[in-house]
Amino acid sequence: MLERRTDIRNVAIIAHVDHGKTTLVDALLKHARVFRDNEAVGELILDSNPLEREKGITIMAKNAAIEHRGVRINIIDTPGHADFGGEVERVLNMADGCLLVVDAAEGPMPQTRFVLRKALELGLRPVVVINKIDRPNARPAEVVDEVSDLFLELARHDYQLDFAIVYTSARDGYAGFEPTVRGGDMEPLFETIVDHVPGPAGEPGAPFRMLVTSLLYDSYRGRIAVGRIVDGTVRPGMVLQRFAHDGSTVPFRATQVFGFRALERVELEEAIAGDIIAVAGAGAVLIGETLADPAVREPLPSIQLEPPAVKMTFRVNDSPFAGREGQYVTSRQLRERLFREVETNIALRVEDGDTPDQFVVSGRGELHLAILVETMRREGYEFAVTRPEVILREGPSGWEEPFERVTIEAPESATGFVIEALSARRGQMVAMQASEDGRVQFAFEVPTRGLIGFRDTFITGTGGEGTMHTEYLGYRPWAGEIGRYRNGALVASETGTALAYGIAAAQERGILFISPGDEVYTGMVVGLHSRDNDLDVNVCRAKHLTNIRSSTADIAVKLVPPQPPSLEQSLALITPDEMVEVTPRSIRIRKMELNPALRAKEARRAKYAAMEGAAAR
């Protein structure tokens, strides 16, 4: 018989990126006095990953536990960026309710719709948190109406329409039930969680069952499986079984059982249905597998994820500088690392490529894959990656491709740029609304391949004053060809050290990525040409010494500061015949074919093929 516990609340915090989820968790932890008064805790406490702090976004879902008046509140912090939606799908089934955090000025955004839809599909009880209520341009009444409309569209059950509303300023640490609140503490939010989120239901007397939703690793204990107990009780030393993905069952003994208290992991003597725990001893356990009592015959339903939409090829670095900077450079090491990533990053797919040194990696978006590349780079791996491309599939009426809904807010002066740029990328405008402050909101439906590399163009075109957010819409019929949006490349014609004299001559041809003293090799892209064609340049050329005296004006070389692209910019910048060489110390763009004679031959062949195709049409 199902029993509902009153001493626990399992709550997921979901929101669009930058609406204040992690700051809200900080406020809850501080109000619960998890830390000592003299302890320096800083901000974004759960974002412990250096990449998360650098980029200012949550990448991995995490959990913490807070004791409040005899009730343990298990908090699950989730990412807000659309590219990490797999993390949201992975952990939501551990919760019974959710805090939907919405910015008091921006209102519901594309990712708000995605995370709320996933939460309501699982039957979670929502609490709406209108955050940043102290912003000068806050419009709480209108935002509540927008949230209500979103619930009417997405709710699966009548009780989901009866949601509580709390107004907060997570940065300043206060909450209230009226939009005029400007002080106090987080007690109203704690009360709302306890009163409106139901406790977990389960059968403590039934055989033990738990779905693995996360993995921890310990150098002594090995893999530790994290999940919520659906039914039954577990104790250290119990003999259990693991339902593997391949259909087999693997017996094991639970060596230790851990619970979560604040930010720490504590050992437990017993855990019952509804607890979020970690179990050691399960061997090579994977996310989505079921841990159960030997009497259980069927596993729990696995985690359902939306398929990846973008892929790119990882390959062994074969440039002339290969092996100079990286610690892990072989195909075996690269393959092991990629397949190990899939064990925890379940929204990712890895397949062997056309050759033994190539691997095709698929993910939710550009940022999803770029974070993996950056993580591996910092771990000491050296490799090369190709340009991201969308994953096509064959539908009833031909090829289909992924589409996304793009929501843009930009100054009124940028209206022409936004419409022209996205229309050229096969985008269709579905909404446009001007506001009194001179800004315009747009909504476009655009093929995902049209958005690859668009973000930097958008920032430049709007003068850095525009914001852009995307929402995955699914597969639709192929939208047609999309033109090229980048000039040709300046390609190094010699291997050596770049010199000021050679760079001064090359910078007249376009924008350079390198500085004097940088090492370059034949076939490396050192800049962007001012025209459409690629151009070989010799940046290693030195000025020949003569007996003729030169004036001071001739000796002084004026160099334009280089503009080296970041990793994300490099991935968006490269063309199909280029790659990004990634090492722990360097990011270089290079041609796939380094030999200039072979590149020219291939270019002529492509040109004649295009001419023949045009003549045939």
Describe the structure.
The chain is α+β, with helices and mostly antiparallel strands and 617 residues long. It folds into four domains: 3-201, Rossmann fold (3-Layer(aba) Sandwich); 203-292, Translation factors (Elongation Factor Tu (Ef-tu), domain 3, Beta Barrel), CATH 2.40.30; 393-477, Alpha-Beta Plaits (2-Layer Sandwich); 489-602, OB fold (Dihydrolipoamide Acetyltransferase, E2P) (Beta Barrel). It contains 15 helices and 37 strands. Helix 8 (366-378) crosses helix 14. The model has no long low-confidence stretch (mean pLDDT 88).
List the main descriptive attributes of the protein structure presented here.
4 domains; eight-stranded antiparallel beta sheet; Rossmann fold; alpha+beta; 617 residues; single chain; eleven-stranded mixed beta sheet; Elongation Factor Tu (Ef-tu), domain 3; 15 helices; Alpha-Beta Plaits
Overview in brief:
The protein has 617 residues and is α+β, with helices and mostly antiparallel strands. 24% of the residues lie in helices and 32% in strands.
CATH class of the largest domain: Alpha Beta
Going by helix content, strand content and strand pairing, the class is alpha+beta
DSSP, total strands: 37
As an assembly, this protein is single chain
Which helices and strands, and how do they pair?
Blueprint: E1 3-4, E2 8-15, H1 21-31, H2 50-55, E3 62-68, E4 71-77, H3 85-91, E5 97-103, H4 110-121, E6 125-131, H5 140-154, E7 164-169, E8 174-176, H6 187-196, E9 201-202, E10 209-218, E11 222-231, E12 233-234, E13 239-243, E14 249-253, E15 256-261, E16 264-267, E17 271-272, E18 276-280, E19 290-292, E20 310-315, H7 331-344, E21 349-352, E22 358-363, H8 366-378, E23 383-385, E24 389-390, E25 393-395, E26 398-411, H9 415-424, E27 428-434, E28 439-447, H10 448-451, H11 454-461, E29 467-477, E30 489-492, E31 496-497, H12 500-506, E32 510-512, E33 519-520, E34 524-529, E35 535-537, H13 552-555, H14 567-573, E36 578-582, E37 587-591, H15 596-616
Parallel strand pairs: 2-4, 2-5, 5-6, 6-7, 30-35
Antiparallel strand pairs: 1-9, 3-4, 7-8, 10-11, 10-19, 11-18, 12-17, 13-14, 13-19, 15-16, 15-18, 20-22, 20-23, 20-24, 21-22, 23-36, 25-26, 26-28, 26-29, 27-28, 30-34, 31-33, 32-34, 34-37, 36-37
Helix pairs in contact: 8-14
